[in-house]
Write a structure and sequence with these properties.
Length: 400
């Protein structure tokens, strides 16, 4: 079946069209169209994502992105005599009340198209920035009305979990499985008893790990988003100094607590103190800049600290719940050091364990993962219910 999936929870406007087949144990996916319009550069100037600006950009980009995807999938055909019934016009106007530019586009452009051969539409309804989420939701609902296609709500975090299934090699998952979700907005451990049956067993009590990477990067004067920059500096340092013992190691917060929760705001503050401490040294002026080696050392110590905590808690949860499959997802799963250390440690614990990370370009936000989650929702529930139609509202704090 063909699924159109839409993701606008943060700063990427992403749409895909996938052909999905198989069952929950051996699904198969082929990508017919896929496109992401990123706002990252725009938000980078301000050092974070601004909801109102994100919403405006989504509203501007969503139809051009969708149009390209339909063309790529060869589902973009204009029809000769097009007209929308008054009833549908009325419904569209209501749904798009908050997105006036989109109402015009629906009347003047989208209504001129033949109904494409699409079976379902899936859209992220949370968690995320509500103004941003609403653009995707309103757009999806309006397409659903115009083309009489059912629309299903998708949880963004379930998308991150399922993103590992889109890999060239078939990925066998044994239950219970554990998922470690690490992104700019989330850090959580999720127990998966079967697909669709998720229990959050731990989460961060303050900053998300990606947020900590971004804040530390800022302290070191590196651009946003900071994760890749920290990682790059840490790598240079590790290559240069295989043996490393910092004068004052950064803390490993909550590493020895019995729960599966995390805390990252203390490491960030410790980095700030370290940098401030350097400035206080004799002979330093207030125009002081950190030298490259010091920056690299701090980046490395930070990456070591967060990796140690993640590994410790994840292994503890795998042991406690008897999990042999670990699924890692979210933007920070792109981190090659975390990937290498976590994989090595889990395999040391159990050589039969399976550790899955998403393909590199699927670790950050995308709509292919939302397409997979839509397909799994359909397989579990067979068909859309009216309750789901009603549930098509933004849920900024929707937890798995
Ligand atoms: O999942 P994502 O794209 O968006 C959210 O839902 O948050 O994650 C973005 C986060 C940012 O904080 C970014 O700094 C971090 O992922 N990130 C990384 C790396 N690549 C992206 N963090 C550490 N190492 C990386 N290589
Ligand atoms: Zn995400």
């Amino acid at each position: 079946m063909k699924i159109l999936s839409i993701e606008t929870s943060c700063d990427e406007t992403a749409i895909s069209l996938m052909e999905c087949g198989g069952d929950l144990n051996s699904p198969n996916f082929s990508v017919l169209g896929n496109m992401i319009a990123s706002q990252a550069e725009l938000h980078a100037q301000y050092g974070g994502v601004f909801p109102a600006m994100a919403k405006r950009e989504h509203a501007k980009n969503i139809w051009p992105v969708c149009e390209k995807v339909l063309k790529e999938a060869e589902l973009f055909n204009t029809q000769t005599n097009s007209s929308i019934s008054e009833d549908k016009q009325h419904q569209l106007k209501e749904i798009l009340a908050r997105e006036e530019n989109l109402y015009e586009i629906f009347l003047n452009e989208i209504a001129q198209l033949e109904k494409p051969d699409i079976d379902y539409i899936g859209v992220t309804t949370g968690p995320g920035l509500e103004p941003a989420l609403w653009v995707g939701i309103s757009f999806a609902k309006a397409l659903g009305i115009l083309w009489d296609i059912p629309v299903l709500p998708v949880n963004h975090m379930e998308g991150h979990i399922l993103s590992v299934l889109l890999a060239p090699d078939a990925r066998e998952v044994t239950f219970p499985a554990l998922s470690l979700l690490i992104s700019g907005g989330h850090t959580e451990l999720v127990l998966i008893k079967s697909w669709g049956d998720y229990t959050k067993i731990g989460h961060t009590l303050d900053d998300a790990i990606g947020e900590a990477f971004d804040k530390v990067a800022r302290i070191l004067g590196l651009p946003y988003p900071g994760g890749p920059h920290i990682s790059r500096l840490a790598k240079i340092h590790r290559e240069q100094f295989p043996q490393f013992e910092p004068v004052k190691k950064l803390p490993r917060p909550m590493i020895h607590t019995k729960d599966f929760d995390f805390s990252f705001s203390g490491i960030k503050t410790a980095v700030l103190y370290t940098v401030e401490g350097q400035k206080q040294q004799p002979g330093m002026t207030h125009e002081f800049v950190l030298d490259e080696t010091t920056k690299q050392a701090i980046a490395r110590d930070f990456e070591d600290a967060v990796t140690e905590v993640l590994v410790h808690k994840t292994m503890g949860a795998m042991k406690e719940y008897g999990c042999e499959t670990l699924i890692v997802g979210g933007g920070v799963s792109a981190n090659t050091y975390i990937k290498a250390v976590l994989t090595k440690k889990v395999l040391e614990l159990n050589e039969n364990a399976k550790v899955y990370f998403p393909e590199q370009d699927l670790s950050t936000d995308n709509s292919l993962m939302i397409g997979i989650a839509t397909y799994f929702t359909i397989l579990k529930q067979k068909t859309a219910t009216s309750e789901q139609e009603i549930n098509l509202v933004a849920r900024g704090g929707w937890s798995l």
